[in-house]
Please model this.
Amino acid sequence: MSADVREKTAALQREIPEHRRTEVALEHHADRERLFSAAVESSNDAIATETLDGVITGWNPASERLFGYSAEEVIGQSIDLIVPEDRRAEARDILGKVGRGERADHFETVRLHKDGTSVEVSVSVSPVKSPAGATVGACQVARDIGRRKSTELALTREIEERRRIFETSQDLILVTDRKGNYVQVSPSAWTILGFRPEEMVGRSAVDFIYPDDLDPTRNEMRLARRGRVMRNFECRYVHRDGRVVSLTWMGTWSEPAERHFFIGRDMTESKKAQEALLESEQMARGIIDTALDAFVQMDETGRIVDWNTQAEVIFGWSHHEAVGRMLGDLIVPEKHRTLHQQGLALFLRSGESAILGKRFEIEAQRCDGRLIQIELSVTALRRRSGYLFNGFMRDLTEKVAVEAQIRQAQKMEAVGQLTGGIAHDFNNILTVITGTIEILAEAVADKPQLAAIAQMIDEASERGAGLTQHLLAFARRQPLQPQEIDINALIVETAQLLRPTLGEQVEMESMLESDAWRAMVDPNQLATALLNLSLNARDAMLNGGKLTLETGNVHLDESSATANSDVAPGPYVMIAVSDTGAGIPAAIRDKVFEPFFTTKATGKGTGLGLSMVYGFVKQSGGHIKIYSEEGHGTTIKIYLPRASGQAQQLADAPLALIGGGQESILVVEDDTLVRNYVVAQLGSLGYRTFTAKDATEALAVLDSPVELDLLFTDVIMPGAMNGRQLADEAVRRRPSLKVLFTSGYTENAIVHHGRLDPGVLLLAKPYRKSDLARMVRKAFEATQAAA
Model:
């Protein structure tokens, strides 16, 4: 028994260590189980276990998140719960391989989420073995690859997009290493620089950059590496053909890639366009600054933003003073400002405008408050910041003055034609009256009472003749006989005649330029004009005053000619007649040269004095100007053309004694009374006469066999030929024929540029018998016929 006990004790002692080893092994296995369970539970991969026939036996939290089923919902269910129908055969094949002890690693497939959506997964399946080593199940590890695939797809797309951008970019894309050698070059290098990418890759940028830009480019690269920021700069490259290409660059440095990345835009054409634009702007600015019109630019608020040099001249405001001010306050007259503001508001509201694109005249206001007439044209320019209005304005002050002068000249010309025609007819009447009164006076010489009446008629006809001479002078129809005269000498002679006439209350002073030029003018008419002006000056100084006669040499330039449309530039002799009288009101200053206009009381003046002076000066090729201020006096300046030194010498033949002759005279006169009077007077002087009322009848007489010694013809006649044309034809037919003209006025037939044509003899109407007799004898004694 003791031996048996010992054996049992020994056996027990042997079992205790074995039992302890078993317990340790079990504890170690339990620890591994706990560690494995913790790993499974905390894994981000979905881990599920299943039997070989596909029944789910394990389901970790990641599986719940991936497939949407909780462990309670799937354990004990077939794995087909999460396998799409078209993938179940694939799942059975995998289980079959696992049952044979094989593994399935990382194959991509599709599983189903609880909500029915597909889940792309990467699955690894391994066998689960018993302690004896037999395969009793399978363990599936599934990883969601949908996000990875999306990321990979996005990455692939991004890479493709960048490749496309790189290959199709019109900008030049360059990638260089730290040393500046090209690593990548975009295909656009061919278009921009004329080099293919493969010709540039591996070469240094030094080979292509314009030499002057190398150092600035190296500096930009250093700054980029230090600051690791994107930088913008300009750098020129040299094209294959040698021309310089301007590029604007944006560059950055990548430290991880150790690469410089550059994008360059070809600015060559852009720079040319900018230079062209700048040149165009400078040209436009130059045109605006030198324009004869004012240029004013206004924004849509009505504020001035531009104001050129001519605007300064016209309106008086400087550029600095005008810019920034409201246009309406600056140059728009107050009475127009409301309309200006309403028009601007209407355009901004509706786009409608009554002035845009049109030229029209309007009043504007200068800085001194004076209103001027301007011509305005306005255009509107739409910009991002709003509208700009461009206005061109032309000062019409000078134009208005010139137009007024032209209208005045036209009016004076029309009145002149009228008065000339009246004077012509009046002279015909006076010729008959003057001639016949001589006959009557001789007949009643022994009857004092009738002789006195005849004398009264004769004096009245003389006054009428003087009146017609004034009218003809104004109408510029009087025949002048200009000579080259010393103006100073003529004024001295005229002053001597004036002194007794002016009276003691008027002081007379002469201010004569010592070297005054000689003038080409009719001395008798000039003396008469000076007498008229001086007497008018005396009448303006009711309480006495000072009369000044002045001479000088002046040169009227182009600006003077522009300001006075009937003035030719050149040298003139100036004569000024000034008084200290009452002056002429501004309202009537433009009318003083009109015939019959006078400010004197009825019966005190004819109103023809100044008009005669005006006509005489104009007919002499001169200019007359009046300056006057009420309460201070008046100055009238006469400008006569300087003599050229080739004066026409008019040496009259000695006066023939009144007498007649026996020659034959053809009298051509359209007025029957005058014609009969002339025939009678010539007959009484012993001459044989033939008559004609017009050129047609005269030519018929000339073609007849009668003997003719003199043609005595009126200048102005009805029909196709005037007196001068008749005389030319008559002399052509009868070369020895003498010619004597007569006329009330000449209308440029024998008077040109204020003087009688050379060789022409003229008997001005009205005339007496003695004048007729003297001029007829003078014509017969002339050495050659008028031509």
